[in-house]
Design goal:
- By secondary structure, the chain is mainly beta.
- Helix content is 11%, strand content 45%.
- It has helices at residues 14-29, 60-64, 91-94, and strands at residues 35-51, 54-55, 58-59, 74-80, 110-118, 121-128, 131-134, 161-169, 173-178, 184-201, 203-220.
- The strands form 2 sheets. Strands 1, 4, 5, 6, 7, 8, 9, 10 and 11 form a 9-stranded antiparallel beta sheet that branches.
- A hairpin with a 2-residue loop joins strand 5 and strand 6.
- It is elongated, with a radius of gyration of 20 Å.
- It starts with 13 loop residues before the first helix and ends with a strand.
Length: 221
Amino acid sequence: KPAAEIKAPVNGSKADIVAFFNKYASAMKSYTGKVSVKRVQGTTSEINSLNPDKILGIDLIAKAEPLLPNDYPKTATKTFNGGKASDGTTLASFLPAAKRASYNVDPAGVKSASCVKQGSGWKVSITLVTESGEGLTYVPKYHGSCFDTLSLTKDSFGPFEPVSTKVNYQSGTFTFVLNADGTLASINVSEPANVICKLKKGISIDADFTGIWQQQYTFVY
């Protein structure tokens, strides 16, 4: 669209910015023109505490640290035409919230939102409220609307067995830069999550660790 037709809510209300986010972030999921997308993503993790942290002189933190995901950055670049790459990957699945065909963020789940002019386009950021839940299968309502969320199983904690698990999603932020014609120039995602769990392997261990899921996308048309 011509820039004059895009009614960006610069310094607008949270509801208007979220509606704008949903519209233009979702539009990229179904974009059918030719576009090259570079994606850099991955997780950085750290152990906040283990109790006990030593057993029979063995440093459990040193043993546990290699089990945490620390694979940032992983880079991939694909060219899409008609919404698909040559290897069959769809553009929708390559973007954040891979399983979603569109974004439907509820303003009630947004802690803060901003829209500012940037060059000939606009920069839009939303930061979600914190969400917490119990169990390996917990899916947060608001983070799940625009982020890829944790997929935890018992195997995620091997060789330990999880007895109880609480996951705290700590206000993920999603930012995009919109070109003057309504296409996206870039996307940045930061999604910190804290996991507190009780593990068992002969003895009971209380564990607390935090991981940050990051994604950066750039688009060339």
